[in-house]
Amino acid sequence: MNKKTVAITAFALFSLFFGAGNLILPPQLGFKSGEWWWLVTVGFCLSAVFIPILGILAHARLQGTMFDFAKKVSPSFSLIYCYIVYAISIALPSPRTASVTHEMAIQPIWDSSSLFTSILYFGLVYVFVVNRSKILDVIGKFLTPGILIVLALIMGVAFFELEFNFGASQFPNPFTHGILEGYQTFDAIGAVVVGGVIIISINLKSDGMAYAEKRNLIARAGWFAGLGLFLVYTGLIITGALFGDSFDPEISRTALLSGISQKTWGNTAALLLSILVSLACFTTAVGIVTGTADFIKGRFNNSQQAYIITTIIACILGVLMGQFNVGYIIAVALPALMFIYPITIVLIVLNVLPEKWASPKVFKWVVVATVLFSIPDFIGSIGWGESIVPITQYIPLSQFHMGWVIPAMVVFGVANLVRD
Question: InterPro entries, alphabetically (predicted)?
Fold first, then answer.
């Protein structure tokens, strides 16, 4: 295994993680964090970088599919988990790409409705998914480098021309707010999904590679990709914090990113960034819909009809949700993420741990505890938190919407102490 192979795999992983949604979250996080930008960064990178990279390390060990992540709980649970993850993917992050495209590239230039944008956008998605065009693969090789170059120029101006004066933070709990905002990147869920894609790609290109060699390759590439994500996220958060007094406090995420690019490099940079982000959005949407359709096709004996029907449903959902603004889609996504993200995190961690500490019994107990103690956070996220205060006041960390953490850790310890 040479350095070039590791570099190519690392860049592929980075590109799979690095979507348009990842771009619009960090700047506003920094914009509102003020002097506590570094604490927000630690929380954000914990859930948006460290946990996802652990997911890649788990894939390096399993060398299977997303189904393998939860099968120790039970095959039925794993299947339900897969269906939920794919359903969330086509209902939330996929439509969000259309919304980002409309707000950053279409609305500033043409006075058209978001509904028209969504219809045209997912009409094209349908065409590309059904025909499985290779054009996106070619475009994708140039998108991420292009976006990174523009971002480097923007961050460079911010770092070298602005004074490092930060205002007051708008967050009462910067660290936990950073963690919860990291949920919105969908990167932990993405790790469970894209890790399988990487495994398949490596198997196709290097059929004779041994298990240990593949594990080492994926692990090293994962850490390099994680380092890249950490640097970009940190740079964007600092950049947002440096512009804390330059925009309306209620500015949207997409408007803030566009505004920062205009203030640093002018309208040309803002337009270029909008085009690149829009193309990245489109490739992401095609990837999500294709992956979901492939999964359903596999569950129905490789039926092409199931593939087409799934693609149509995914595109209709995209049109319905994609006409809403990014902020609304992020708000709608929160309840689903408050429930599925904790489960995904514990599955990732358990799959990374040595076998002796992560038996099927441990998987079952910890996942059940996580599900039960995620319910109050889910209820709170849909606005019914006051009704369950008599319960949540006795759950540690529930005030930070992380009431599942301590119970999962306690059950993990107990399950390992109680031997069969």
Answer: Brnchd-chn_aa_trnsp_Livcs
